[in-house]
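Q: Structure tokens for this one, please.
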Amino acid sequence: GALYKDPALEDKIREAAAELGRPIDVKIRRAGSFLVVYSLVAVSPDMTVGRLHVLRTKAIKTISKLHPLIVHVDIKFVPRRKEYKRPIKSRHA
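A: Here is the predicted structure, written as tokens:
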């Protein structure tokens, strides 16, 4: 479906997804007269699957209540990159 542009709703979704980790991307698409939300969230690589499941379920319920036309919420996780104290040396040096 076509993208649905509503900056205020996108901001609310980002706030709800921030409970899980760092929201990378939020897209809202139309499915007929309804809305489908896709979100990509970076999480700690140390987070357990059980903890992710609990937080994801809570976030889906919260996001679904933000707008009466939201019928589906899809949240995908990617591991957040760890920060390195020193730069990684190139192999081609």
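A few notes: The helical segments are 7-17, 49-64. The longest strand covers residues 22-31.
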